[in-house]
Specification:
single chain; alpha/beta; TIM Barrel; 8-stranded parallel barrel; 14 helices; 12 strands; binds manganese (II) ion
């Protein structure tokens, strides 16, 4: 595996490449052209400039998170053809720039959903949190206002004001899209892009829906083992793979995370590893990465990744806001650096135990 950190780019991220370079064991970043809109064709010069900036800082551009999917593709309107063509051109240009992993999601209207961006934990740190009753009390159209007030002056991915200005129309456009239609539209999209992925060896890595159930009555399909295996089989190409995000699949306590990882051998192209602390089935908050701070056994997650021979980029996911840092919620430097270091420690221990023949289960 390659340890990486997500980086939003100069002008968007409060964290610098120089700081990331100083986290032990972090050799790459996962980035994006943050100023682009879903559906837009990425310019080669912009991709190459991003890559050069990262390499000049002594790091590698280990993949893209995300190249976002235009709603027309998810809804399946006739103009999706143009947007898929645009997506293919962007993939071509990424492939030509020697980029081989692209994360994306297929969530209608909203990306990830949280009810709070700064819930205070007993140690004084603040974290993103989810409470079902609080979400149920929100009118979807007001969701953006609720979220944007707590962004510390940043623009959060998936919550771009330009898109959110049209939330009402988006809901209307999705009214005939159910789970089956969404699956069909995803299949159509994947079948169209697989030839270019084959040509340039680009691993597509779908990010799970977060939380892993339907919110505001919108369909959600990338939520559990059954659905993700269905997706792998419906377009059975190794370039059709997943981002295994423990914090997203883990929102549903019925998901057995190590078992899911093992069932996806060869198809996990990117990993987000983080911990959640459940206060009840319907209320959780993002914890520190350390197992004992939350509800997941992080050793078991890393062991499962090791056992399947995972060799893609991995990154700590959302961090807590600690040590008075002011940054995009979930994306400060300090706690993600602690997370990367902890995950590297687990990996080293697993690797050495294995080499010495003492990982008997
Ligand atoms: Mn994630």
């Amino acid at each position: 595996m390659q340890m990486t950190l997500r980086w939003y780019g100069t002008g968007y991220d409060t964290v610098t490449l120089r700081q990331i370079r100083q986290i032990p064991g972090v050799t790459g970043v996962i980035s994006t052209l943050y100023g682009t809109q879903p559906g837009e064709v990425w310019k080669s010069e912009d991709i190459l400039a991003l890559k050069k900036e990262i390499e000049d800082a002594g790091l590698q551009l280990a993949g893209i998170e995300s190249v976002n999917i235009h709603d027309a593709i998810k809804i399946g309107t006739p103009d999706r053809e143009q947007y898929i063509d645009n997506y293919i051109t962007t993939l071509e240009r990424l492939g030509q720039a020697d980029v081989h992993m692209v994360c994306y999601n297929f969530m209608p209207v909203f990306d990830w959903t949280r009810s709070e961006l700064a819930r205070k934990r007993p140690d004084g740190s603040t974290v993103l949190a989810y409470n079902q009753a609080a979400i149920d009390a929100i009118v979807p159209e007001k969701m953006f206002e609720t979220i944007s007030g707590e962004m510390n002056g940043t623009v959060m991915p998936g919550w771009e004001p330009e898109r959110m200005a049209h939330v009402k129309e988006l809901f209307e456009a999705y009214k005939d899209v159910d789970d089956e239609k969404l699956f069909a539209n995803l299949k159509y999209f994947l079948e169209r892009i697989m030839p270019v992925c084959d040509k340039y060896d680009i691993n597509m890595a779908i990010h799970p829906d977060d939380p892993a159930w339907s919110v505001f009555g919108l369909p959600r399909i990338i939520i559990n083992k059954k659905n993700i295996l269905r997706m792998m089989q419906m377009v059975d190409n190794p370039h059709n793979g997943v981002t295994f995000c423990s914090g997203s699949y883990g929102t549903n306590l019925e998901n057995d995370l190590p078992d899911m990882i093992r069932s996806l051998k060869g198809r996990i192209h990117f990993a987000h590893v983080r911990n959640l602390k459940f206060n009840s089935q319907e209320d959780f908050e993002e914890a520190a990465h350390l197992s004992s701070d939350g509800s997941f056994d992080m050793y078991e997650l890393m062991l499962a990744l090791y056992d399947i021979g995972f060799d893609g980029p991995i990154r700590p996911d959302h961090g807590r806001m600690i040590w008075d840092e002011v940054a995009m919620p979930g994306y400060g430097l300090y706690d993600r650096a602690l997370g990367a270091t902890y995950l590297n420690g687990l990996w080293e221990a697993i690797e050495k135990s294995h080499e010495r023949g003492i990982t008997k289960r």
